[in-house]
């Protein structure tokens, strides 16, 4: 069987990792096309045609190109429903979405490379800025999952929340955030890293 999708990604992009992981969870075949953010490949005219926002990831579906990782993940989860990334009942789904958005809206965009560069050109100040927003988001996330009895963010099944969280923890460690402050998050992180689907999507595999 041929590849279903072309995924334009950057190896260390947390949003790209989300999609690699979800496609692996769903056992969907895909081609990986690297986009070097540090070399500015996302800003060239050819790529802007595919993604006017000039960001990664971009997923090619037939002759169409789509950005925004959570929108794409929703499409994949609907198109390939097993195993599901969301619980069945509406309140549980709301809880998982709240967790996912805590990272995807309230944390990750505030610590990414473009935001850091706009804030300051000094590396140490960029790092301090990133750590501030990551820790702020993690304090909220840790409180939200404190009462969870499962291995993951919501119960004993990997969900959309974990797909957003784990790449952010990878970034947090890279920036030097003290994960001892967030024991529940770090436990979820380590359990997720044991999953084959997560291992196969890990950024270190794709490091140039």
Strand content: 5-15%
Under CATH at level 1, the class of the largest domain stands as Mainly Alpha
Q: Which structural category do the helix and sheet elements fall into?
A: alpha+beta
Biggest β-sheet strands, sense, barrel: 4 strands, mixed
**Backbone shape:** globular
Instruction: Please state the average pLDDT score.
Output: 96
Tally of individual domains: 2
Explain what the structure shows.
The structure is a single chain. By secondary structure, the chain is α+β, with helices and mostly antiparallel strands. The protein folds into 2 domains: 7-83, Glutaredoxin; 90-197, Glutathione S-transferase Yfyf (Class Pi), Chain A, domain 2, CATH 1.20.1050.10. It has 10 helices and 4 strands, in the order βαβαββαααααααα. The protein has helices at 14-25, 45-50, 69-79, 90-104, 108-111, 113-119, 123-145, 160-175, 183-193, 196-199; strands at 5-9, 30-34, 58-61, 64-66. Strands 2-1-3-4 form a 4-stranded mixed sheet, covered by helices on one side. The two termini are 28 Å apart.
